[in-house]
Amino acid sequence: MKIFQEAVQLRELKRGFHIITAAVQQALPQIRELKTGMCQVFIQHTSASLTINENADPTVRQDFEMFFSKAVPENDPDYLHDDEGPDDMPAHLKAAILGSSVMIPIRNGKLALGTWQGIYLCEHRDHGGPRSLILTAWGE
């Protein structure tokens, strides 16, 4: 069994849903050495998240942002945690709903994503700053 791990820092992205599949593949080229295995992508933040979804039509990402903005609104007077601005508590809730990691099978040296699948970095803050990821791949 082989295990590879890389830390990656992504530049600050605007609020929204961003496809980062290519950045993951570029940061962990050792995946090509694995015939079969798994790749975990983990984000080291509590106000951004990761998910896998449609990678072809950009309106899907716009609809994700619209849905989460409606489902978890800013400026809710019931929020207690508001020291970092009106987008902070909703960002934590959105990240809890979507999650902090994704797992992708590796098959024949490639991420075994479906035809229309991509890895999203979900930025829930207006100014979240650079985001740190830990990429871990293992297999044979």
Automatic annotation (TrEMBL):
Coiled-coil stretches: none
Taxonomic source organism: Chitinophaga tropicalis
Pfam families in the cross-refs: YjbQ (PF01894)
Domain of life: Bacteria
Protein name as it appears in the record: YjbQ family protein
Matching InterPro entries: UPF0047_YjbQ-like, YjbQ-like_sf
Family that this chain belongs to: Belongs to the UPF0047 family.
